From TrEMBL:
InterPro entries with a match to the protein in the record: Methyltransf_25, SAM-dependent_MTases_sf
Organismal lineage: unclassified sequences, metagenomes, ecological metagenomes
Coiled coil start-end: none
Biological source species: marine metagenome
SUPFAM superfamilies associated with the record: S-adenosyl-L-methionine-dependent methyltransferases
Transferase found in the keyword field: yes
GO terms of biological process kind: methylation
Name of protein: Methyltransferase domain-containing protein
MF terms in GO: methyltransferase activity
Keywords: Methyltransferase, Transferase
Domain Methyltransferase: 48-144
Length: 284
């Protein structure tokens, strides 16, 4: 699912910071994931895989739909996020939920063990996406369903591109990940996504595009919003950690000014563009 640097980040400071801001992140991403979950339409008694489950919000939502006659398995590579997910399931007394610290791309799932697979922004980080989705395909029973939500291009997602444009005038940014390389925007090309899923064995592949305002970090002051924003961006965080304090302060100040027109009591409110992708494993 991710290279060792990704695993190290999300099992370290990146995961810790996501856990710290879990409520804000679920508030921001919840409506986007809900659209994909409604497309999947889990029903009572189904066994479902939640890929890149993070802190478990989507896993618990699926668990409530499939009921105690079904089950949900959440998979992720972040220890701190999985720890919180497990605690949330325990607090909710959901005994039909399990979590695994595994790489979706290489983990040996049982064959034909799931009725469906789902993900909220958790499947764009595979080093070998065809291999990963082939693995998911094998884990689904005949007629098994797939649904996930992913980001469109950075240009259509100013919550990301605004910061990049601001910082590019101050510092030398890391070499961008290739458009199809592992990262948040790896699935921005619809034809590429369809080719991956078709190569993995799926059919009935459909993709729908959606635009929606994104409210990030509601209730936070603008400086705190900037700090939170930087803390969950692996490339940005690594860069800033090596800088003198004066340079870091300049970056924070620049982002504060860039974000100011978009900040309100609702949080940092910017446009987002996503794709909801669905597919199916043939019953043949």
């Amino acid at each position: 699912m991710a290279n060792e640097k990704q695993r190290e980040f999300w099992s370290g400071k990146g995961g810790d910071n996501w856990v710290e801001h879990q409520t804000s992140m679920d508030h921001m991403l919840g409506p986007l994931g809900e659209r994909a979950l409604n497309k999947l339409d889990p029903v009572a008694g189904e066994n479902i895989l939640d890929m890149g489950c993070g802190t478990g919000a989507t896993t618990l939502a699926i668990a409530n739909r499939v009921g105690t006659s079904g089950s949900v398995s959440g998979a992720d590579i972040s220890e701190p996020m999985l720890t919180l997910a497990q605690q949330r399931a325990k607090d909710a007394e959901l005994d039909h939920v399990t979590f695994q610290n595994v790489d979706i791309q290489s983990h040996a799932f049982e064959t034909d063990c799931f009725d469906a697979a789902f993900s909220r922004f958790g499947v764009m980080f595979f080093d070998k996406p065809v291999e990963a989705f082939t693995n998911v395909f094998r884990s689904l029973g005949a007629g098994g369903r797939l649904a996930f939500v992913c980001w469109q291009s950075p240009a259509k997602n100013p919550w990301q591109s605004l910061a990049t444009q601001t910082l590019s005038s101050l510092i030398e940014l890391p070499v961008p990940t290739p458009e199809r390389g592992p990262g948040p925007f790896a699935f921005q090309e619809s034809d590429y996504v369809c080719d991956i899923l078709s190569s993995a064995g799926f059919d009935a592949i459909e993709l729908s595009n959606h635009e929606q305002m994104l409210a990030m970090y509601p209730g936070m002051t603008l400086p705190k919003t900037v700090e939170a924003y930087m803390s969950i961006n692996p490339a940005l965080r690594a860069m800033i950690a090596e800088m003198p304090e004066e340079n870091r302060t300049n970056i924070v100040d620049a982002l504060v000014e860039a974000f100011r027109p978009y900040h309100s009591d609702r949080g940092l409110v910017l446009e987002s563009a996503t794709s909801v992708v669905t597919a199916r494993k043939s019953t043949d």
